[in-house]
Amino acid sequence: MRKEEAKALVVLMAFLLGVFSVAAVAGQAAPPQPVLNLGAVVVGLEAGVAGQASSPQLAPEEASEQSEEEQQADYKILHISPKHDWFELKPGGEKEFAVKVKNKDEETVSTSPRIEVQPFGEYFLEEDWITVEPGSAEIKAGEEQEYTVTVKIPEDAEIGDYSAQVVFTNDTMPTPYPAPFPMYVNSLMLSIHVWEPPKIVVQPQYIHDRVEAGQRQEYEIQLENKGDKAIAISPEIGGEERWYGPFENTIPEDWLTIDAPAKVEANSKATVRVTVNVPVDAKGRYEGSINLNIDDPSIERWNQEMHMHIEVWKQPTTPYREDFTVKQGEKFSVVVTARQHAYDRYGGGAEEKEEPSFDVALIQATLGGGKLTPEPSKTVKKGEVSLGMDYLPPWEASSEGMYQVMSTEYSETYEITNATGGVWTLEILPRNAESFEYTIEIGE
Predict the structure, then answer these.
(1) Beta-bridge partners for 318
(2) Which of 14, 299, 361, 422 could make an S-S bridge to 173, C-beta 3.0–4.6 Å?
(3) Cβ-Cβ contacts under 8 Å for 20 (sequence gap 6 or more)
(4) Going by C-beta distance under 8 Å and a sequence separation of 6 or more, which residues neighbour residue 102?
(5) What total of structural domains would you count in the chain?
(6) Within this chain, do residues 284 and 343 fall inside the same structural domain, yes or no?
């Protein structure tokens, strides 16, 4: 891209940016906006390609709204690599990297790198955290200069995100209206995440379980303090996040109680117990959270909130019914299957839940309305077992019993031979089942 083309594009972007910037600063609708003649810009660029000096043109009625200084703006065209950089450093950490600046202009460019701190954000970087060498350089047309950028984070720096610009020339994008801060054309944008490993490990990060209406369930949140000082905690119901949806409700606070210590001692573990009491008239999916309020600045806010997803179910009292047709003398079989998931390994009594079972009946009109309640001819129990670290807190990694049951499947088979022809009705009343499947197989 030729110099004239580049300048035209910069002016175009700066013009549009300025229109939106002033509206944001003033907190009101933008004043009447001049319309840029894009066709004239394209023609100007094409003329530049053909070797003719050209610049973007505004529609005649709008040209007067730009100052003479803006219309004659000139820019040094530098190619900066990298143009953006993002990295993480701990307090007291340091990073050094190279930045290459190539002069794409037609004349020598003088550079004097300096640090510009962005006037927005929650945390503000200090200029002396960043140094650039050399402090100045003359770059001839077509040549390249390499700079060394060094970032040093003080030991007492707060955990958070910081940003700054390394500015190589004073060229800025002009705007037709006042801008909140200058936009430098030839600069490197730096984004630095200052962090440190959390001193407390929390498990689990979420609870997902099914609770029968009218029942209570207790869950345990394990905390391990790996630091050398006690860390205060103050768990409370709720957090910044809320969950809504057509089938989801917020867990009412009066369903939950929390039992927790006031702190976790150095190099020790502690348990936060959360009890859910579900009313007898509840039904459906409920979402909520527990904010642990851990006094450890290295833990991000969202890592202190434990998400809870509770599915409330009720034991049915009327059976599920399904009709099917059988020919005279045919054989048929019914297989009913239910699966039980190990949702949460921190809930008390997860292994003590009753196994699913079924009350199965078969009805046929010629039987005088009577029901057959056959005994299952086959019962199958199938399990899914993990040898990994599913649902285990890290301090249990060396314990015995590494086989973790993830789910268990139960099935019962019922067979009828030499059946009476006609319409049969299958009735299934499940007990302690999350859901169930059935298969009706007719014939050999």
Answers:
(1) none
(2) 14
(3) 30
(4) 78, 79, 81, 139, 142, 143, 144, 145
(5) 4
(6) no
Here the CATH number for the domain that contains residue 137 is 2.60.40.10
Instruction: Name the pTM for this structure.
Output: 0.61
Instruction: Give the domain CATH number at 377.
Output: 2.60.120
> Model confidence over 234-258: pLDDT tens digits?
999 876 555 555 546 889 999 999 9
284 sits in the region (left: phi over 0; alpha: psi -120 to 50; else beta) called: left
User: What's the whole-number mean pLDDT along residues 99-111?
Assistant: 94
CA distance 172 to 182: 6
Same domain, 176 and 120: yes
Identify whether residues 423 and 330 lie together within a single domain: yes
- Using pLDDT thresholds of 50, 70 and 90, give the confidence band for residue 396: low
Residue with the two structure tokens 């689990």: 204
| 41-60 residue pLDDT tens | 333 333 333 333 334 444 44
153 and 210 share one domain? no
Q: Name residue 402's amino acid.
A: M
**Nearest CA among 187, 183, 165 for reference residue 174:** 183
Across residues 398-420, what is the average pLDDT? 82
Together in a domain, 325 and 299: no
Q: Which residues on neighbouring strands pair with residue 410, listed in sequence order? A: 338, 381
Amino acid at the residue 298 = S
What b/e sequence results for 210-222 when a residue is b if at least 16 CB atoms lie within 10 Å of its CB, and e otherwise? bbbeeeebebbbb
Beta carbons of 347 and 207 less than 8 angstroms apart: yes
The reply to whether 308 and 325 lie within a common domain is no
How far apart CA 312 and CA 431 sit, in angstroms, is 15
| Domain enclosing residue 385, as ranges | 320-442
Task: Judge if 273 and 350 occupy the same domain.
Answer: no
- Distance CA(235)–CA(308), nearest Å, equals 14
Residue with token string 């037609």:
106
H or E element in which residue 309 lies: strand 305-313
- Residue whose entry in the numeric block shows the structure tokens 């003080």: 154
Q: What is the pLDDT of residue 71?
A: 41
**Structural contact between residues 15 and 176, judged by C-beta atoms closer than 8 angstroms:** yes
Assess contact for 223 and 268: CB atoms under 8 A: no
Q: Which of 23, 48, 71 is the last residue of a domain?
A: 71
Q: Are residues 93 and 144 in the same domain?
A: yes
Answer yes or no: is pLDDT of 375 > 50. Answer: yes
Domain finish residue from 71, 90, 107: 71
Round to whole Å and give the CA distance between 174 and 69.
9
